[in-house]
Amino acid sequence: MDIALWIVQGLLAIAFLMAGGMKLTQPKEKLAENMAWVEDFSANTVKGIGALEILGAIGLILPWALNIVPELTGFAALGLVLTMIGAAVTHVRRNETQMLVPNAVLGLLAAFVFVGRLFL
Question: Which positions ≥6 away from 51 have C-beta within 8 Å?
Fold first, then answer.
């Protein structure tokens, strides 16, 4: 089980580092070309979401790997579950139902890490 959790944690960390890094480094106008939802939020909010995704990605790996308050890994995963729920709500509100699949997949994988690291 530990190997499966590490694999999922690694994949999630890569995905959220890339997504968060893009949101932090690109101007809102450039992001809007591929992510229409950014029009609903201020530039600072989009950057805040990106920062949270990066912090979540770091939290998926470092606490458990360094054995420094390893419970934080589970809570980082929970934060990413909540982020994906918020993303899904935004996409439903914008009638972008095609984006629900990636939100659900990432959210369920993060939920797996949450349960696996805190309860198993």
Answer: 20, 24
